[in-house]
From TrEMBL:
InterPro entries: P-loop_NTPase, Small_GTP-bd, Small_GTPase, Small_GTPase_RasD
A single GO cellular-component term on record: plasma membrane
Source species taxonomy: Eukaryota, Metazoa, Spiralia, Lophotrochozoa, Mollusca
The species this protein was found in: Mytilus edulis
A molecular function (GO) term: GTP binding
Main location: membrane
Protein name: Uncharacterized protein
Length: 165
């Protein structure tokens, strides 16, 4: 996971030639699939089993690229989107996406496909938008509802990057 999110960040910084020094990566997906946990693990190196209430939060992370300090704002979003208008803003503005589903929740897999379709319908040049699909809760194999093959087949067909964690 670590390398996939990091790769996404580097890619989007490399293509961002604007004067702004901040780019946004939106982490989207259904409620309780593990978006906040993944971000905490990536940014702080830790994981807690405690569930925290869904909040919309911004985590800036600095990167030194060619001697210049650039920031990536990781946007943690609420899965049970109470604010559809916020989702529309993320979808229209983010430079990159991490779309998360749980392998134990087939509806969450349908949701990431809907999200990607929405991104494609709103954004031009969507093939150049860095987007990583994450199948989370791999440790819950006994409750699996989404077959690895189904996810890989979709990711391959839609030219997306992916990982299972
Ligand atoms: N077994 C297992 N549990 C996980 C994993 N990742 C997260 N969880 C648990 O799943 C629950 C939900 O995780 P969150 O990270 O809060 O999920 P979220 O997607 O941010 O949820 P919302 O903020 O409601 O949208 C928590 O109890 C986590 O501890 C995982 O890989 N495996
Ligand atoms: Mg959360």
């Amino acid at each position: 996971m670590r390398s996939n999110i990091a790769d996404t960040s580097i890619t989007l910084l490399a293509v961002d030639n604007s004067a702004r020094s901040t780019s946004q990566i939106a982490v989207l997906g259904s409620g309780r699939v593990g978006k906040s946990s993944i971000l905490q693990q990536y940014l702080n190196g830790g994981f807690s089993n405690a569930y925290t209430e869904p909040v919309e939060d911004i985590y800036p992370k600095p990167y030194d690229i060619n001697g210049k300090r650039r920031f990536v704002d990781y946007m943690d979003t609420a899965g049970n989107i109470y604010f559809p208008a916020m989702r529309k803003i993320y979808i229209s503005k983010a430079k990159g996406f991490v779309l998360v589903y749980s392998i134990c929740d087939s509806r969450s897999f349908e949701e990431v496909q809907k999200l990607w379709n929405e991104i494609k319908s709103v954004r031009e040049n969507n093939l150049s938008i860095p987007c990583v699909i994450v199948g989370n809760k791999l440790d819950e194999e006994n409750k699996r509802q989404v077959e690895t093959f189904a996810a890989l087949e979709w990711v391959y067909r839609d030219n997306l990057g992916g990982c299972f964690i």
